[in-house]
Amino acid sequence: MQLKEIIQYLEFLAPLSSQESYDNSGLITGNVNMPITQALICLDSTEEVVDEAIENGCNLIIAHHPIVFQGLKSLTGKTYVERVVLKCIKNDIALYAIHTNLDNYRFGVNDEIGRRLGLENMQILSPKAGVLNKITVFVPLENREQVAQAMFNAGAGSIGQYNACSFFGEGTGTFTPVAGANPYIGTPGTAEQVKENRLEVLVSTHQLAAVVSAMNESHPYEEVAYDIVALRNSNAFEGTGMIGKLPVPMPTEAFLNLVKNAFNCGVIRHTKLVKTTIETVAFCGGSGSFLLKEAIRSKADVYITGDFKYHEFFDAEDKLIIADIGHFESEQYTINLLSAILTKKFPNFALRLTTINTNPINYF
């Protein structure tokens, strides 16, 4: 298949618009029209991983971490970043990164962590605000269902665990077609009054263009009357970190052993064990110290993430346990997640998981 088919599906689930401002997710090398024979999935696209792709005939590498975070001013091969980019270009390998947009996806990196810990009732720890819109469109009574369904099919009307959500009410629309118009109802020069429905739906910003297009295509009117209002509401299905509960509370040390075994941790750096049992667990893959206040506010017993600095451990203030399991350790199963996502959509597509451990940190 062509590379653009894979990219379109990944970005439908985890749109580039939902990545953080510092990030560089997306296509780094390659052409969207190139045919893909086999893909290699990895956490970090190191030189060794590129060699693995070449050896196995993979012309696409899907990485969680972008190899290029900042602009490159040269491509001479003096750094490992430049060497990776050069080697991909020379060997016609497309390199694609899906990073914080996958972190912010409800069923992304953090959902995989929670699933492996056996947590229930999982929710986004810090939902994003300002990523929802309300579309209001006026449509003849007999056409409401077809317009609504077209908008739902394009991604509108999802609220948490519910789909096809809308509000509609009946009213009267007035208009006068001018000369040259081709009205669905009425004739040019004659004032009209028509029974219409006011149809309202919610839509995420990244799906807005597709929903408006579907609305216009399915609407019978030559000129469609609608408005779009940006909302400040938080989207419970988009954001950073997650929180969930164990089916049964566990003794703290037993829980930490569970975490250590589940994520093959060389060590868990943690604060004082101020909780004797663990029930509510907050977590964030990668570097998650910025969510500590959210974890405390949510009454979590423990907060699992990576990359806590020395002084940041004091910020727990004995209100919960910080469990730093390591950056790589917390995100290592992202490759399994991506494999499952792509296999479900493209069951005959050839995928490989890297066999290279790209963790730059070792334990003695």
From TrEMBL:
<feature type="binding site">
    <location>
        <position position="103"/>
    </location>
    <ligand>
        <name>a divalent metal cation 1</name>
    </ligand>
</feature>
<dbReference type="InterPro" id="IPR015867">
    <property type="entry name" value="N-reg_PII/ATP_PRibTrfase_C"/>
</dbReference>
<comment type="subunit">
    <text>Homohexamer.</text>
</comment>
<dbReference type="GO" id="GO:0046872">
    <property type="term" value="F:metal ion binding"/>
</dbReference>
<dbReference type="InterPro" id="IPR036069">
    <property type="entry name" value="DUF34/NIF3_sf"/>
</dbReference>
<comment type="similarity">
    <text>Belongs to the GTP cyclohydrolase I type 2/NIF3 family.</text>
</comment>
<feature type="binding site">
    <location>
        <position position="327"/>
    </location>
    <ligand>
        <name>a divalent metal cation 1</name>
    </ligand>
</feature>
<feature type="binding site">
    <location>
        <position position="64"/>
    </location>
    <ligand>
        <name>a divalent metal cation 2</name>
    </ligand>
</feature>
<feature type="binding site">
    <location>
        <position position="331"/>
    </location>
    <ligand>
        <name>a divalent metal cation 1</name>
    </ligand>
</feature>
<dbReference type="InterPro" id="IPR017221">
    <property type="entry name" value="DUF34/NIF3_bac"/>
</dbReference>
<dbReference type="InterPro" id="IPR002678">
    <property type="entry name" value="DUF34/NIF3"/>
</dbReference>
<feature type="binding site">
    <location>
        <position position="65"/>
    </location>
    <ligand>
        <name>a divalent metal cation 1</name>
    </ligand>
</feature>
<keyword id="KW-0479">Metal-binding</keyword>
<dbReference type="Pfam" id="PF01784">
    <property type="entry name" value="DUF34_NIF3"/>
</dbReference>
<dbReference type="GO" id="GO:0005737">
    <property type="term" value="C:cytoplasm"/>
</dbReference>
<protein>
    <recommendedName>
        <fullName>GTP cyclohydrolase 1 type 2 homolog</fullName>
    </recommendedName>
</protein>
